[in-house]
Specification:
By secondary structure, the chain is α/β, with parallel strands linked by helices. The chain is built from eight helices and 15 strands. The longest helix is centred in the first third of the chain and has 20 residues. Bound molecules: fe (ii) ion. Fe (ii) ion binds next to loops. It comes from Thermosulfurimonas dismutans.
């Protein structure tokens, strides 16, 4: 786990090594521009710089790179040149995309062309590794609403062990994202939990559906590790919301953890704590 909300920034950047191949998923990190009406403070800005440097360093040695969609917490346009010589798979820049991301994808591709970087569309791909494989989902909606366009999920398999990265599926709240997870049967699932911090703005019903879907995954797949992070970890009280998951995990040998916990690093929800830090000053 390179960066995520539980490590203090908006991101789902992950490095996976499978079958001797270094794979990097979502090389990007950003800060919430406004939270509680407050801009990021110097603590968050410093953490962002530190983690972006780490991601960029790992990007240099990665052989295969995935960009699951065109939000700045998942890719970095200014690092286009660093992608040279790598096998690069990007979310389809033209189909199943909203206007804003299509514009960004177009600009990114111009940068890739200028840097002489080749890329391939990620959707639905199966990439063979020596003793394993990478399976990419089809287009999956970014949360409960169509207006944010689509993302792709990436499953990396080495022998009988599967790691699945499912960015920005907000729960997962929709059936297609759940289906991909149920089909791939991950041992380690890194999934974007829903935006509980938005409450009714996300949709109270959608939050219920997301939790029911996670419970279903937990019961039907029983992954060794269920890593919840990203949107859900913008909420200081996420563990309270996830209580039924912790209960269901008990006795099934499932560990429900944040990205920081999984990586053995201290959990620092810097965005969610922004107001507290401000009040302490
Ligand atoms: Fe995101």
């Amino acid at each position: 786990m390179l960066a995520s909300e539980s490590l203090g920034v908006r991101s789902m950047a992950v490095e996976v090594e499978a079958c001797g191949t270094k794979i990097l998923i979502d090389p990007g990190a950003a800060l919430g521009p406004k939270r509680y009406g407050l801009p990021p403070d110097e603590i968050e800005i410093a953490r962002l710089a530190e983690l972006r440097e780490l991601i960029r360093k790992r990007l240099r040695t990665a052989e295969i790179v995935f960009i699951t969609h065109y939000h700045f917490d998942h890719y970095s346009p200014d690092w286009a040149g660093d992608l040279q010589g790598k096998l690069l798979f990007i979310k389809d820049p033209v189909r199943n995309i909203n206007r804003n991301q299509a514009r960004r994808a177009g600009e990114f591709i111009e940068r890739l062309i200028r840097a002489g970087v080749r890329w391939e569309v990620a959707e639905g791909r199966r990439i063979e590794l020596l003793g394993g494989e990478i399976v990419v989902s089809g287009p999956l909606w970014h949360g409960p609403e169509a207006r944010f366009g689509c993302v792709v999920s990436v499953a990396v398999r080495e022998g009988g062990t599967t790691f699945l990265h499912s960015s920005d599926v907000s729960g997962p709240v929709l059936e297609e994202a759940v289906d991909f997870i149920l089909t791939q049967r991950p041992d380690i699932l890194f999934v974007d939990g829903p935006s509980t911090y938005l409450g009714p703005r996300f949709g109270l019903k959608a939050l219920e559906v997301a939790r029911a879907n996670l419970l279903r995954i937990l019961r039907e797949v029983s992954p060794r590790n269920l890593i919840l992070d990203h949107h859900l970890l913008r909420d200081l009280y996420w563990r309270r919301w996830a209580e039924p998951l912790f209960e269901a995990a008990e006795g099934r040998g499932v560990q429900v953890v944040s990205g920081a916990e999984f990586s053995g690093k201290p959990e620092t929800l810097l965005e969610a704590e922004r107001k507290r830090r401000k009040l302490r000053k």
